[in-house]
Amino acid sequence: MGEVPHEPIWKRWFEDIGGQVYRGCRPETQEGSDDCGAHLHSLGPDAPGGPIAAQHLFNVYTHPPKGFEEFGKGSIFRGYEISQRAKTWWLYSSAAMYALVHAAVHNPTNGFFVFLSESCVPLYPAQLVYLQVIHEAKSRLNPGCRGAPDFGRHPSPPSYRRRLAEDEEHMEWHEVTSGQWVLLNRAHALAVDRHPQNRLLWLRDESYLATLLHTLGLENETTCDWQGPTYAEWWPPGDYHPLAYEHFGAVGGANWGGAAPYTRMAETCPLFMRKVMPAATADVICLLWPASNDTDFPDLS
């Protein structure tokens, strides 16, 4: 992760929840309803330090490349770079994923852990994403669930099979491929943090977390969803990269600014999407904030 081309989107996304806190939702007191929309309220004026510091619903951790010192002075992500960074290259960012978990899991207020790339954008307002995530019990990934679609399971090359065989003398390892941009609950994040660092970090990034949870026998504690919380369109099938979105068409009649009670979505509904190109930033802003004509934002690509 280096510069974030969609920073204008994230800036407004965090600004929308400035000063808000969660009061807790007790569906059993609401006649079986999952309506938790009234349980976000404001503490008052935004705190100094930028839109991320002014909100209380999300903690942010970034892992820029090792040679990337810090974000620029005008960036909302400045100061959120983790100190311990790993060298990464194409297909192999497992050590960076571990470093992010390690940095975040020691904060006891972090209950869920969402991995996003610089090409990801939110599909819903921050309030809705927060309420959805905190009411999900399972991690969103597929660690080799029995009967689940076999989208990401591929034969391991000989070098992988040797490493899997040699890695643990008394345990059978199977490489399982899932989506890379996943959601972990706290129990699974702790399991990742406590796992011996040198065991699985050599796996490809889309195999690392899925294989780790698979070896721990935690398949029934996940959604078995290959894509996780982030939608991507893999076309043509078998390609190494998902389809890149350069433009979004107008959404007729869309108006997400109205008040409505919150109803929890299915755990397979995507909350984010990738791979969104910088040219589509204005389209995403119009989708999330349809009443806004503010398209005069800096080009950070």
UniProtKB/TrEMBL annotation:
<dbReference type="InterPro" id="IPR003406">
    <property type="entry name" value="Glyco_trans_14"/>
</dbReference>
<dbReference type="Pfam" id="PF02485">
    <property type="entry name" value="Branch"/>
</dbReference>
<keyword id="KW-0808">Transferase</keyword>
<dbReference type="GO" id="GO:0016020">
    <property type="term" value="C:membrane"/>
</dbReference>
<keyword id="KW-0328">Glycosyltransferase</keyword>
<dbReference type="GO" id="GO:0016757">
    <property type="term" value="F:glycosyltransferase activity"/>
</dbReference>
<protein>
    <submittedName>
        <fullName>Uncharacterized protein</fullName>
    </submittedName>
</protein>
<keyword id="KW-0472">Membrane</keyword>
<dbReference type="InterPro" id="IPR044174">
    <property type="entry name" value="BC10-like"/>
</dbReference>
<keyword id="KW-0325">Glycoprotein</keyword>
